[in-house]
């Protein structure tokens, strides 16, 4: 922790400022990017004024304590006063207690937009950076990750077998597999972000420490006393001969998908309820339509029982994570079985990702439809080094006793499409 004081200055961007009307993602200068943008609003950042790396079961506690202490060392000059103003940390936390690394980053510069108001926050005298042209990744090739599609099918089949032959304790488990993409040129995170935002504008397009994606699922949002979550579970995908309306009707009428969804919504509400004086959970889900899939969705809303500072957002995230949407039901049985069946480290895939500010507000989603950039070689041919990038993509789904392994593999393939198409330049 720093022993000196920092200053965070937030001001409205003047309409004459060239950054006032440009899309937020267009303002990222290059290098490591920080992003949380949906339908043109949100936050982007760059530079690093402070950083926490942590891991293990205490990662939420460590992150909360570090952020609170750091904020005590920051003098705030905030002329805007909206959520996301003042000091903001971008966070990406590991899915599991062990293994997996977690990170919080305080950027040197953040540009935000909410309700038509655009502002900029700088830490101390952050340098002005020119926006470099977005680089193309070149040729993209794919290879099996640590768990191939075949291995994933076997893991699903084994999970189904265990649920069908057990005493009924385990009702759902969420499994995933990975796919490795190699690019012939260094991978510019902004190339992925722009392409994802163009095709999935109603998702939260994120980037934190090399974890880049577009998630449709909001784990927790907090504004003062108000808290909100969007739970997704139960999936269908477009197929020839069926309209979206027909597929949506099938999804709503599917006992398997409705059951899977109810587990997820109930688990979130059960864990969030102790923090709230009021909690609203719709009796039936709606359908969220994306370009590649359709999801059953439930928006949960509540009012905190305590003062705004009494229940920190990271404390609440620790209480609700993992929900049945990314873990299973009951989680105490499902989560240990995930690592046994997948035989891979998820890292920060399916973990909380987003931002928190110095007044307790923030938005944390789940790192889904994403890739972790693992390697970035920039050496030129004349230096004798390799050139190109490597990114590990993830996708999976909820497995229940009547799941079909072949259909689950197809569902995972559909969920891999957003990042694959973004890598390949599809808009």
From TrEMBL:
Source taxon at top rank: Bacteria
The keyword Signal belongs to this UniProt entry's keyword annotation: no
This protein's UniProt keywords: Isomerase
Coiled coil: none
Chorismate-utilising enzyme C-terminal domain: residues covered: 150-415
InterPro entries linked to this entry: ADC_synthase (IPR005801), Chorismate_C (IPR015890), IsoChor_synthase (IPR004561)
PANTHER family: ISOCHORISMATE SYNTHASE ENTC
Protein name (record): isochorismate synthase
Originating species: Saccharopolyspora rhizosphaerae
Biological classification of the source: Bacteria, Bacillati, Actinomycetota, Actinomycetes, Pseudonocardiales
């Amino acid at each position: 922790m720093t022993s000196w004081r920092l200053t965070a200055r937030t001001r409205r961007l003047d309409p004459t400022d060239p950054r006032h009307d440009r899309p937020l993602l267009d303002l990222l200068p290059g290098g490591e990017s920080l992003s949380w943008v949906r339908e043109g609003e949100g936050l982007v950042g760059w530079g690093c004024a402070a950083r926490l790396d942590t891991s293990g079961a205490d990662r939420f506690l460590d992150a909360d304590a570090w952020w609170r202490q750091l904020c005590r060392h920051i003098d705030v000059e905030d002329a805007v006063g909206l959520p996301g103003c003042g000091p903001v940390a971008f966070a990406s936390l590991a899915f599991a207690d062990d293994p997996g690394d977690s990170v919080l980053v305080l950027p040197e510069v953040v540009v935000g937009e909410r309700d038509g108001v655009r502002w900029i926050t700088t830490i101390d005298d952050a340098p002005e950076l020119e926006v470099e042209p977005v680089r193309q990744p070149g040729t993209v090739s794919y290879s099996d990750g640590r768990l191939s599609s075949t291995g994933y099918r076997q893991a699903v089949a084994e999970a189904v077998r265990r649920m069908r032959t057990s005493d009924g304790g385990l009702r759902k488990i969420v499994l995933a597999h990975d796919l490795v993409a190699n690019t012939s040129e260094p991978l510019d995170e902004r190339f992925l972000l722009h392409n994802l935002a163009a095709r999935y504008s109603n998702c939260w397009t994120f980037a934190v420490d090399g974890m880049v994606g577009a998630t449709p699922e909001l784990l927790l949002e907090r504004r003062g006393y108000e808290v909100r979550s969007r739970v997704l579970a139960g999936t269908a995908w477009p197929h020839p001969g069926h309209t979206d309306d027909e597929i949506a009707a099938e999804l709503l009428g599917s006992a398997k998908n409705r059951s899977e969804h109810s587990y997820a919504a109930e688990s979130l509400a059960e864990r969030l309820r102790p923090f709230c004086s009021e909690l609203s959970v719709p009796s039936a889900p709606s359908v969220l339509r994306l370009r590649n899939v359709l999801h059953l969705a439930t928006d949960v809303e509540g009012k905190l029982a305590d003062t705004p500072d009494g229940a920190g957002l990271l404390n609440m995230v620790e209480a609700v994570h993992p929900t049945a949407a990314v873990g299973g039901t009951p989680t105490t049985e499902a989560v240990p079985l995930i690592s046994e069946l997948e035989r891979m480290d998820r890292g920060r895939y399916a973990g909380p990702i987003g931002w928190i500010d110095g007044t307790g507000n923030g938005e944390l989603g789940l790192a889904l439809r994403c890739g972790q950039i693992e390697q970035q070689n920039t050496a030129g041919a004349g230096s004798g080094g390799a050139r190109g990038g490597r990114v590990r993509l993830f996708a999976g789904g909820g497995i229940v006793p009547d799941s079909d392994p072949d259909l689950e593999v197809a569902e995972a393939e559909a969920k891999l499409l957003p990042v694959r198409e973004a890598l390949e330049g599809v808009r």
